[in-house]
Amino acid sequence: MQNNPVLYGITTCDTVRKARKWLEGQGIGFTYHDFRKDGLSEATLIAWVRAVGWEALVNRAGTTFRKLPEPEKQVTTEAEAVSLMLVHPTLIKRPVLVREGSVTLGFKPELYEKLFP
Q1: Which residues of 72-100 are buried (b: 16+ CB within 10 A; e: fewer)?
Q2: pTM value > 0.85
Q3: Known active-site residue 13
Q4: Which CDD domains does the record match to this protein (predicted)?
Q5: Are 95 and 107 in contact (CB under 8 A)?
């Protein structure tokens, strides 16, 4: 028996809502983890960074990033990115889907259709 996928995000994010609705509509069991409410461990974040790269994980287009002081926006290393995302978890590109050891960022129906044939 395999574990259910875990969908990480924040409840107020429209893209996370779309991903949840899609999974529910397909009858796919999953666990939802709101990292704003439930927190996020450094080990989990580092595992994601190792899987997809910190550059992909930092959402530079979001409101949280735009509101950062200019010096904090100058992230150049994995350690800086992890530290910044732990302080500001809404900087993480959402949703993060962890399934069978793989990490998928963002949501597009066609992407999820390939993950859950």
Answers
A1: eeebeeeeebbebbbebbbbbbbbbbbbe
A2: yes
A3: yes
A4: ArsC_Yffb
A5: yes
d(CA 19, CA 95): 7
Upper half-sphere CA count for residue 82 (Cβ side, 13 Å):
15
Residue 64: both structure tokens together: 């949280």
Active-site entry in 13, 23, 84, 92:
13
The dihedral formed by the CA atoms of 12, 15, 18 and 20, expressed in degrees to the nearest 10: -70
Q: Which domains does the chain have, with CATH numbers?
A: 6-115 (3.40.30.10)
Look up residue 93 and give its amino acid. K
Taking only the tens place, the pLDDT of each residue in 2-43 is 579 999 999 999 999 999 999 999 999 999 999 999 999 999
> What are phi and psi for residue 80, nearest 5 degrees?
-65, -40
3-state SS string over 41-68?
Answer: CHHHHHHHHHHHCHHHHECCCCHHHHHC
Two structure tokens written together for 73: 């926006």
In the numeric block, which tokens belong to residue 57?
Answer: 């994980």
